[in-house]
Amino acid sequence: ALEEAKKRNATVVIAVVDDGGYPIVIKRLDDTQVASVDVGISKARTAAIFRRPSKVFEDQVRNGRVAALALPGATALQGGLPLVIDGRVIGAIGVSGNTPQEDEEIAMAGVAALTAATKSESPKVTYFPAAKVSKAFEKGMPLREIPNYKVHASHRDAPGVVEVHTRDTDIIYMLEGTATLVTGGSIVDATNIEAEEIRGKELSGGETREITRGDVIIVPNGVPHWFKEVKGPINYYVVKVRSAD
Fold it and tell me: Within 13 Å of residue 16, how many CA atoms lie on the same side as its CB?
């Protein structure tokens, strides 16, 4: 907004307030009348506390709804605009000192700059062709691993060890083969192999299930699980969803 005002050689006050209408930043350009300070703040406060541009009230008055002038905290002059991030009003900007239209345009430049600065790029879509997926299943390899989640193309020819992921929830989708999966119970000979990962020899107790093609099972983080028996090679997807700290 300041750059836009300077580009126009405008003599204005630019005020930024928080979502409660309290001033955060006030900038008065050279030769701007002091009276514009209060007006600029009032425009910004109006946009913040009413969650709409101050021009809305000016239009209401112009169209005959003079009662808008009596609304506590409302300044019926254009030039005040809400500042919105992710659909939530975080504050507002108000500009005063030049023509109403120019005040509005300078305020709009400030809003546009904030929007551009906070707009994140759309995440990229990840695509794995069938040939790459098949190759990953041959050895049991991750397809994608990022901080929030992991997708593994898992393969087993034999039983495994007990696993506990203290932060990762496993979503297992069986593609081929049959296995006996034990969940819960107590770990025998538990060992921390790395941060947030525990392994063990076997489970004492727990719940036993036979899982096969088409089955889905969700193992929450912190729950021991063990492929106790594997009847022939099995292929299965595992989506690991990481819990918050």
Answer: 16
